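=== Structure Prediction Worksheet ===
Name of assembly: unnamed complex
Input type: mixed (protein and possibly other molecules)
Chain count: two
Listed entries:
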Amino acid sequence: MNDIVSQDTLDKKLASVESITEGLGSIGYIASRRIATAIFVAENLSKPILVEGSAGVGKTELALSTAQWLGLPLIRMQCYEGLDESKALYEWKYGKQLLYTQILKDKMGDTLSDTKGLDEAMQRLHGFGDLFFSEQFLEPRPLLKALRQKHGAVLLIDEVDKSDEEFEAFLLEILSAFQVTIPEIGTIEASVPPLVFLTSNNMREMGDALKRRCLHLFIPLPDAKLEQRIVASRVPEIEERLRRQLVAFVQMLREEDLKKLPSISETIDWARVLLLLHADSLDADLVRDTLNVLLKFEQDIAAVERSVAELTRKAKQA
Amino acid sequence: MQQTLENFLRALRAMDVRVSPAEAIDAHCTVDSVGYSDRTLLKDSLCIALAKSEEEVERFDECFDIFFTRDEFRDREEEDESEGLSDAENEMLGEQPLAEMLLGGSETEMAQAMEQAANEAGVANIRFSTQRGLFTRRILDRMGLRDLERLIASLNRQEGDEAAADMAGRLEQGRGYLFEEVRQYIDRQFDLYARNAGEELREEFLAKTNLSSIERRDFDRMHRIVRRMAKKLATRYARRRKHTKRGVLDVRRTLRKSMPHGGIPFETVWKQTKIERPRIVVIVDVSQSVAAAARFLLLFLYSLHEVIATLRAFAFSSHLIEVSDILKERDVEEAIPEILEKIGFRSTDYGRALEDFEDLHMDALDRHTTVIILGDGRSNDTDPRMDLMRQIHDRAKSVIWLNPEPEPFWGTGDSEMHRYRTFCHVAKTCSTVQDLERVVDDVMKTYFRV
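=== Predicted Assembly ===
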């Protein structure tokens, strides 16, 4: 994956919406038109994409697939409450700095032994470069790493809604100018702006400043046709008849009044489970036994269990 | 095309999609790179650059569809089928482009002339439905209506000339058609640029209206307003849970952190205050006089659930019951009528209600809990049980009494408000949604002091 990708091939791959759709499709990510357009515009305007949508619709997967398809390194940063810049951007290598001061102390005597008076010693000291805060002692964290990739990268800032407000403010510099400022060193700019994805589950409303700097992509739950294609591409071993039935079943579940609607990842998991059980078509008992793959709440399962027979029958007709 | 995009952005703003100047620049850049030729591509890419939330995407789609199906963008394939004018007729019309257009021009030509006149008249500035007549007039004037009328009049004056009379008839018909077209056009523009302006005005008005005089048909709108206010508060307070007190060093933790570095304190740790989430107990009077206010207070608090740790709600008129469960299971809108049915509309008895509260929940009050009581304090001359009120006051972090009546009415008749007031940290009149917002904001502030 770390092969050097030339800018030309990248440009060619990202030349049009169609080529993006096709390219993502070739590695198993079925992108809707809006998704492909988002990547196209992001590349053209050099802007990050803020991806929203309920859990499991493929937000993170989009970034992973894009990186894989473009052959760019993926740098992922998982956000959580309390994440700060020393974990996201850079940290000083304290141990090394400490060693350095030790060496310095030892050498100092030798170097300065022949100087006369304090002034001259200070003069000589100024002559040495100040290494203490220099890039050699910098430990890059994900964000800095992404900026320093020579041939570009895909940067995934996952679940940015879980981070604190301060952190959001601190992201702004990176997102708008693709640069970071380290007080002791100066500003580090990206040689090639990375393709940035931010994902959010809408735990909290993101600030306007952040939203303004990003393109916004909302991924809805897919319709039956799209979902069938996704399942076909992710679980190719599954037979078409079963695939149609299970997608129809899931689509009907989404009409129900549930606490957590099953999303694409659940559908794919379910397809894998059914495959594992060597099922060739849905039946009520099978569905009842495997319902816990689709639904993650006790109440939801209880609510659906009553109507499983009915739903299965309808799904089989689909 | 620049103007078109500007107008579109304006229409978006009217539809409540916020477009900042920076985003407008983005939009222009986007259009530069995708062009106008592919409609879906244009729509998708503009949507991605401009709409910043799920609701905005919906509104964007709607706006895009209305905007780009206006006349000037309709396919211009149907070309002119009328046969043109004879020389004699041309002579009769003289130099009158509007008249020529009405008689011989194509619809496209008319539409174009209308668009142009509309742009000159600044139709994108339309805000109120009463302005429709004005803008219609302005557009017609710019298209040359006055000359046309003069022409018709002069043609009518030529008595006995049949050709002239015929021409006048045709022109009058054309004028009628033109009126109709322009009127429809203005209606569409009004939809595009001003539909939400009226709505905004209405909402602003409602926020200041007395809660008890809000009519049933406005409830939906009110719910929306309350939800939005609550959301604003929620986002403000949901953010900061931990607060660093810069300047106060946590010596113990700094020393511990310095261990790996041989005792050199590379990392300093500062003292932090943890901010607790509010615990709120609401007691609402649901008798007739206060029911409306109760409804919106409950809605408000329940919309804030993400920032409130625990919320218990009690409702009473003659006796008191806990309604937290009903409110949790159902939407507040549905739950309120059910609660009213259970206990509502009987004569109020504050003393009795406080007794019930003592049995149910008094033990759970502690110094972290805020008690909000909503009621008019009119107890129908029953024992107000001040002792229980004092107990609540002593146990809770604070007691807030909201009274829908204005202050001069407190203590008149059977109102015990002045006596209850002694045991409240805050007693306020609360008659509009704005009052509600202020009060809830104050409560939050006492928890999230930053």
